[in-house]
Structures are given as structure tokens and as C-alpha cells.
């Protein structure tokens, strides 16, 4: 009896939190037959069908004493670890220490090629594709979608050089499946035979009497509609990491900068006439369309050169004047607002600006904006006019000191040479940090942009 009770006694030692499998040995009774293929130990003589497996700490040796049996539990590991090298979360930027795993593009057991995307990680600024460093098979993953992964932490295990496993086994079952498919129509013939017997049942047709209840369901149907309000009328979802970061930065900007906004209006007649006259020739030569943004970028560069304080930034108790002009352009992406940077705008032509904007816009729509595309920037332009905005006050993009807001172009009555005429007008808004930029400098800056846009020849003549 003591021996027959042994499996239950040993099984009580099993603790899932311990990760080492123990092989059992019975003294004075019989040796244990260890099935190394699956890591189980069985008692060959008394209970061959009951596995005696326990999970115990690797530094302990347990023993049980029975009236006629001494049992000792010795350590022997039968667990097999997944093969392959552990791939860790790479560095995702100087200020980024963690991210949220969005999804696995490759699951365990799937083959992956070098530079192929294995998973996507969303950070505070951008979504990063984690690519495979080599060809191989994913044998283990260490994080689930929606969980946080830290830089340097284990991400997945890759068995390098392994070939796809599905190529050998997939073709063989295909022909066998075709034979049962051919036999499928035969049972279909047997079914109608059975259906002939029930055909006699319709002879006693009390069914017509069942039809009168049909008007009854029609009346309760509308009465059951009041149950609609009981359904949930709101949804709660986790805020994306990028949206959380955007909210933090915008609130920090409000709490830090002494923001003030000044306004002006721009007559777009001359710029629109120039665009209408040269847009076809421009697109034919440069391969991009001529828009309004290139004129506003070049006008902003001219105004920044004229008013260096707008291009400066506060650093502690110092003012840093920057003699380069990298202009950030706010772009809407599927995951939120991103602000890629046009670098060296003072060296770019109208065509160069339009080409850079087209490339960045395409990357933003495809959610492929990288961290280096958004790093830096000395001044920001936000064009809410593409969405129909007539008027607004943009918020400074820290650590910058000013931001220009463009709005929709609308025909409005204005006075020109003493006469009221209709002109296409755009309202401009400049939000600036009043700690660094005085009102005189801000108004002069915005007036400079107005003059350059209303007469683009000033940009050519450097006036």
C-alpha cells in the first residue's frame, strides 16, 4: 500500500514555479525507467502508467520515508530549451528607453529572412520596425502584443540559418485530400433519399394553422426596440504611447513658455498667379507640384535671418542663437501628429523644398517616419488650412521659441487703393515665447513673411 500511495505523495511535491524536472529513484524496490524523450520518470514495477514527476529547486534533494520503502528525489534535467540566439531590443534613440510591442509579424516557428520585419514597437515619437539580423526561424518570443519592452531586454529567439519547415510537409497531404473530395458528392445523393421519407409527413398539414401567429411577432418587434439603450454607449481603449507623449509635451509647453500670439493677413493673389502661370512647367522640369508651402518656407527663412531671436532658444540662463535654419513641418500621420524637419532650408530652392516635403509626406502617410527625421528643428510651420481651418493659435513645439500657423485661403473684401475688392486672403498666426521674443520682433517677423508672400520677387532680390 505504501508503494501504491507513492505517486500521489510525490505528485504533491509538484510546484509549477520551479523550472527543473526531477527524476525519481526508488531504493530497495526497482530502478526507475526514465523516458528521456519526454522527460518523464515512471515506476516500472508497481505503477507503470502513472508518471512520477515533480518540480523542485535545483539545489535541493528531497527524500520520503515509508515503512518499507525509502524514496529519494535526485535532480536530473530533461527540459529542452528552444534553440537559437536571443535577440534583444535595440537602441531606439537617445531619449527612448522603452516602447510598446504592437504586433508580431512573424510567429514562433515561422521562417524569417534577413532585414525582414519581425515585430513593431511603438515609442513616444515613432513606430519602429524590428528587423531580423539574419535568416532563420523564430523559436521563442519573450513579450506579448500590448506589453512594454525595454531597450536591452529579451525580445525573441532566432535560430539562424534554419530553413523553412513548411516546404517539405505541405505538398504531400494535398493529393490525399483530393480523393475524399471526390467521394463527397456520393453522400449528397443519399441525403435526398432520406428526404423522400419526410416528404410524406407534409400530408397532415397543420402547418397552415401555424401561420396565424405571424402577425403576433410583428407587433412585439417594435416593442422590443427599447432594449437598445441598455447596450454600452461608450468604449474605453488604451491611449497610444505617441498620443500620451504628445499630450505631455503640449502641456509642458504651456506650463513652461510665456506664449503669446500675433496675427496678420496675407493677400495670396500674386503667389496664386505665379503658381497658375508656372505650375505645369515647374512640374515637368522638377517632377513635383508647385504648392504654397515652398513660398512660406523660403519666406520664413528670410524672416528668421532678419529676426535672429525667433530662431534662438533658451538654455538655462543662456540664449542660444542658431545660425542654421532647420524648419519643422507638422504632418498628420495615422498614429498622430508628427513633425519632420526640413534641413538646411536656406540652401534649398523652391523645387528642393517641394521635393523634401513630398518625400516626408509620403513617409508620414505610410507611418515610416524615423526618429532622425524629427530630430532637431529651429522653427515650426503648421498648415491647418489643408483641413479648412480659418483661424487658430498654434502651440509652440518645445524647445523651439516660435511657430507659424497657416490657414485656409478665402475670398474676402479688402480695400485696395481706396476701393473695395475681393481678394484671396489667408490669416497667419505667430505664437512665440515672450520670455525671449519681444512683441516688436514678433510683429516685424510676421510682417516680413507677409511682404515676401504678397510679392515673391522680394525673395529673388533678397529684399
Sum up the structure in keywords.
alpha+beta, 28% strand, 4-stranded antiparallel sheet, elongated, 6-stranded mixed sheet, 463 residues, 30% helix, disordered N terminus
Topology, number of strands: 24
Report how far apart the termini are: 106 Å
Approximate strand percentage:
25-35%
What is the overall number of helices? 14
Low-confidence stretches: 1-79, 167-208
> What summary fits the major beta sheet?
6 strands, mixed
Could you estimate the helical fraction of the residues in percent?
Answer: 25-40%
Assign the structural class, choosing from mainly alpha, mainly beta, alpha/beta, alpha+beta, or little secondary structure.
alpha+beta
Q: If you compute it from the alpha carbons, what radius of gyration comes out, rounded to the nearest whole angstrom?
A: 37 Å
- Broad shape: elongated
Trace the largest sheet across and list its strands: 15-24-23-22-18-21
Q: Round the mean pLDDT to the nearest integer and report it.
A: 74
What would you note in describing this structure?
α10 (293-306) crosses α11 and α10 packs across α13. The protein has 463 residues and is of the alpha+beta class. The chain has helices spanning 6-11, 166-169, 173-183, 185-200, 207-210, 215-218, 220-224, 241-256, 269-286, 293-306, 350-365, 371-374, 439-454, 457-461; strands at residues 21-27, 32-35, 40-43, 54-55, 62-65, 70-75, 85-88, 98-104, 111-112, 117-122, 127-131, 136-141, 148-150, 154-160, 259-267, 313-315, 318-320, 327-329, 331-333, 336-338, 341-342, 379-383, 402-416, 419-433. Mean pLDDT is 74; it is low at 1-79 and 167-208. The longest helix has 18 residues, at 269-286. Helices cover 30% and strands 28% of the residues. It contains 14 helices and 24 strands. The N and C termini lie far apart (106 Å). The chain has a six-stranded mixed sheet with strand order 15-24-23-22-18-21.
Amino acid at each position: 500500500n505504501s508503494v501504491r500511495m507513492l505517486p500521489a505523495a510525490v505528485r504533491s511535491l509538484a510546484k509549477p514555479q520551479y523550472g527543473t524536472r526531477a527524476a525519481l529513484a526508488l531504493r530497495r524496490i526497482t530502478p526507475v525507467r526514465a523516458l528521456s524523450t519526454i522527460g518523464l520518470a515512471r515506476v516500472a514495477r508497481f505503477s507503470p502508467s502513472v508518471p512520477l514527476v515533480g518540480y523542485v529547486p535545483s539545489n535541493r534533494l528531497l527524500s520520503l520515508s515509508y515503512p518499507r520503502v525509502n524514496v529519494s528525489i535526485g535532480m536530473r534535467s530533461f527540459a529542452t530549451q528552444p534553440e537559437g540566439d536571443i535577440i534583444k531590443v535595440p537602441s531606439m534613440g537617445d531619449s527612448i528607453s522603452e516602447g510598446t510591442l504592437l504586433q508580431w509579424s512573424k510567429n514562433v516557428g515561422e521562417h524569417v529572412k534577413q532585414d525582414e520585419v519581425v515585430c513593431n514597437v511603438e515609442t513616444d515619437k515613432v513606430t519602429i520596425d524590428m528587423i531580423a539580423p539574419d535568416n532563420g526561424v523564430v523559436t521563442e518570443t519573450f513579450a506579448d502584443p500590448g506589453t512594454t519592452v525595454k531597450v536591452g531586454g529579451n525580445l525573441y529567439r532566432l535560430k539562424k540559418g534554419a530553413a523553412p519547415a513548411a516546404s517539405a510537409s505541405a505538398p504531400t497531404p494535398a493529393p490525399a485530400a483530393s480523393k475524399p473530395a471526390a467521394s463527397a458528392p456520393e453522400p449528397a445523393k443519399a441525403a435526398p433519399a432520406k428526404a423522400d421519407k419526410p416528404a410524406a409527413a407534409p400530408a397532415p398539414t397543420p402547418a397552415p394553422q401555424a401561420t396565424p401567429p405571424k402577425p403576433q411577432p410583428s407587433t412585439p418587434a417594435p416593442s422590443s426596440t427599447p432594449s437598445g439603450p441598455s447596450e454600452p454607449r461608450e468604449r474605453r481603449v488604451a491611449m497610444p504611447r505617441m498620443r500620451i507623449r504628445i499630450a505631455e509635451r503640449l502641456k509642458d509647453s504651456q506650463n513652461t513658455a510665456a506664449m503669446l500670439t500675433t496675427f496678420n493677413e496675407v493677400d495670396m493673389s500674386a503667389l496664386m498667379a505665379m503658381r497658375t502661370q508656372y505650375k505645369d512647367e515647374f512640374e515637368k522640369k522638377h517632377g513635383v507640384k508647385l504648392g504654397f508651402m515652398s513660398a512660406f518656407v523660403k519666406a520664413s527663412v528670410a524672416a528668421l535671418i532678419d529676426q535672429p531671436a525667433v530662431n534662438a532658444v533658451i538654455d538655462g540662463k543662456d540664449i542660444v542663437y542658431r545660425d542654421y535654419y532647420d524648419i519643422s513641418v507638422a504632418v498628420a500621420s495615422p498614429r498622430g501628429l508628427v513633425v519632420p524637419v526640413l534641413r538646411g532650408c536656406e540652401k534649398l530652392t523652391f523645387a528642393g523644398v517641394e521635393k523634401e516635403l513630398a518625400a516626408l509626406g509620403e513617409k508620414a502617410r505610410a507611418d515610416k517616419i524615423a526618429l532622425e527625421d524629427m530630430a532637431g528643428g529651429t522653427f515650426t510651420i503648421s498648415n491647418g488650412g489643408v483641413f479648412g481651418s480659418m483661424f487658430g493659435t498654434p502651440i509652440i513645439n518645445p524647445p523651439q521659441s516660435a511657430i507659424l500657423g497657416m490657414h485656409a485661403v478665402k475670398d474676402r473684401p479688402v480695400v485696395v487703393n481706396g476701393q473695395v475688392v475681393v481678394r484671396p486672403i489667408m490669416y497667419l498666426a505667430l505664437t512665440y515665447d515672450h520670455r525671449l521674443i519681444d512683441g516688436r520682433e514678433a510683429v516685424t517677423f510676421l510682417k516680413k513673411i507677409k511682404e515676401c508672400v504678397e510679392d515673391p520677387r522680394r525673395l529673388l532680390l533678397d529684399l
